[in-house]
Amino acid sequence: MNTIENKSVLITGANRGIGKAIAEVFLKRGAAKVYAAVRDVGSAQSLVDEFGERVQPVALDLSDAASIEQAARVASDVDIVVNNGGVLKTAKVLESGAFEAFAFEIDVNVYGLMRVAQAFAPVLAANGGGAFVQLNSVASFKNFPDFGTYSASKAAAYSVTQSLKDLLAAQNTQVISVHPGPIATDMGDAAGLSEIAEPAELVPEAILEALESGAFHAYPDSMAKQVGAAYASFAENVIEAEMSVG
């Protein structure tokens, strides 16, 4: 069980959308410090203006392992890592640009997750375990054809997150897989979901609940909760169960 009070948190993609909402809610709920991990540190200035020295912008590009490793050295006191950053290309798998779109999404959404996990797992272990939170999607469970390559990348990210859950348990690090549905962000708008999107603040609230309860899955919004309810039996009996191969 983890709480946010007096904790040091690093959030990738904290300058806008869900990442910014996570930073704001966490700070209002008592986080001691938020490392706003962004490609352009100037883009986190509004958080600094609102919360002062409790926000420390740090350069991090999910496609650049060296920048992630440097961020891990800077944020050496971190207790909770939230890998929120990600990319979306609205590509259908039969389109000519699907391969390029998928390669881009895999590099950021999957390899980026792995880069962050490899860099920060030792930091979390040194600081007592803490938590690693991965922003996945309802698209991790169901492929939506209008953004088929993105859905496939999020399915892969979810698979990696399951692996991290088991691997990091040994160092007392809680892993949380967050699966939002349509959320009111620029990415949601790009996916054509603005009419049914729900507030971004639902995501940090769901993360906080999972931190406190010890849950692996977090379902923030109405669609996510509906999908999560349908998925619950499989999740409990397969994903969250102890199983071995061979």
TrEMBL record:
Protein name: Short chain dehydrogenase/reductase
Entry keyword Oxidoreductase: yes
Organism: Haloferula helveola
Family according to the record: Belongs to the short-chain dehydrogenases/reductases (SDR) family.
InterPro entries in the cross-refs: NAD(P)-bd_dom_sf, SDR_fam
Pfam families: adh_short
Keyword check for Oxidoreductase: yes
Swiss-Prot/TrEMBL keywords: NADP, Oxidoreductase
UniProt-listed Gene3D superfamilies: NAD(P)-binding Rossmann-like Domain
